[in-house]
Design brief:
Layout: E1 2-4, E2 9-16, E3 19-26, H1 32-38, H2 41-47, E4 55-61, E5 66-72, H3 90-97, E6 100-102
Length: about 100
């Protein structure tokens, strides 16, 4: 059954220069393994394809039930250089939370 990440997780984000940092945290510990399987570097890169990331790196944080994604070159040169202020910070985390996944519960 398809759901969105918003149904099973929340996110925090930050940006520095032309790099975005998005943490995805499962609401419930039992959902973490599903997120690890469904939310891969490749899927996140495709989901952000309109922003043209040059690299997406995923770090798993199993003790926190979370993962952290670093997206390179997605901020139009950086917050201070970009005229596109809507796709920085929190807007990027909301975009990730709209990503559909298959619920395997």
């Amino acid at each position: 059954m398809p759901i969105t990440l918003y149904d099973v997780a929340h996110a925090r984000t930050g940006d520095k220069g032309n790099r975005a940092n998005i943490s995805l945290i499962a609401y419930a510990p039992e959902d973490y393994e599903m997120l690890v399987k469904e939310v891969t570097e490749e899927r996140v890169a495709q989901h952000f394809s309109d922003r043209k990331p040059t690299k997406v790196t995923r770090y798993l944080l199993p003790n926190l039930g979370a993962m952290n994604f670093i997206l390179d070159d997605v901020l139009d040169g950086g917050v201070n250089d970009s005229l596109n202020l809507d796709m920085h910070g929190k807007a990027l985390s909301f975009h990730l939370l709209n990503m559909p996944i298959q619920c395997t519960k």
